[in-house]
Amino acid sequence: MAASTKILPFMKGKDGKLAVIQDRVRLPYDTKTYSIKPNVTKLNDGVNGEDRDRLDIVLNYYEGSFQMYLKDAQVIRDWLAAQAARDARTAPLEQEGGVRFYPNNGTRQSFILVDLILDDFDFSSNERGANQMITVNFRCGDLKEAKTL
C-alpha cells in the first residue's frame, strides 16, 4: 500500500494541553496560552585559517510561561504554598509538568517537564468588563519525550 500524500492541517490551540502538578495533585489550570523554550549559552570559537567561527550551544535549562483566566485565586495560593515550604526550609513541594499534543494524524505526543519550578507570576486587572488574567513563569531542568498510550 502506498503512503498517503494527504497534507495534514496544522495543529491549533485545541490540539495541545499543558498540565502542572504540585505535591502529586494536578492543578486545575485552564491555560489560554503557554510557551516553552530552551535557555542556552551560545558559543563561538574562532579558529585560525577558517572563514567563520565554529558555533555551538550549551543547554542550561528550559523556561516558559503560561497565561490563564482567573476563576479564583487558587494559582496564587498554590504559588504561596510552594514559597512557604521554601521559607520554612523544609523539603520543597514537588512540582512537575507535562505537555500533550494531539496532531491531526490520530496520534498523541507527550513531553515531561522535569524538575519544574514555578518562578513568579504577574497578575493584572483590566477594565471592569474584561476577564482577569494571570501569567505564571516557570523553569525546568529538562524536557523529555514520554511514551504516550
Provide tags for this entry.
149 residues, mainly beta, Elongation Factor Tu (Ef-tu), domain 3, 5-stranded antiparallel sheet, 4-stranded antiparallel sheet, 50% strand
| Biggest sheet character | 5 strands, antiparallel
Instruction: Give the count of helical stretches.
Output: 1
- Overall CATH architecture: Beta Barrel
CATH topology: Elongation Factor Tu (Ef-tu), domain 3
CA-CA gap between termini: 26 Å
How are strands sequenced across the largest beta sheet?
2-1-5-6-9
User: What is the CATH domain class?
Assistant: Mainly Beta
| β-sheet strand percentage | over 45%
Order of helices and strands: EEEEHEEEEE
Low-pLDDT windows of residues:
none
- How many beta-strand runs? 9
Q: Helix proportion of residues, in percent?
A: under 10%
Q: What integer is the average pLDDT?
A: 92
How many domains make up the 3D coordinates?
Answer: 1
- Shape estimate: globular
Alpha-beta classification: mainly beta
Please sum up the structure shown.
The protein is mostly beta strands. The protein has one helix at residues 74-87; strands at 16-22, 25-26, 31-45, 54-69, 95-101, 109-114, 117-124, 133-140, 142-146.
Walkthrough of the structure:
The protein has 149 residues and is mostly beta strands. The chain has a single domain (14-146), classed as Elongation Factor Tu (Ef-tu), domain 3 (Beta Barrel). The chain has one helix at residues 74-87; strands spanning 16-22, 25-26, 31-45, 54-69, 95-101, 109-114, 117-124, 133-140, 142-146. The strands form two sheets. A five-stranded antiparallel β-sheet has the order 2-1-5-6-9, with no helix packed on it. A four-stranded antiparallel β-sheet has the order 3-4-8-7, with no helix packed on it. Strand 3 and strand 4 (54-69) form a beta hairpin.
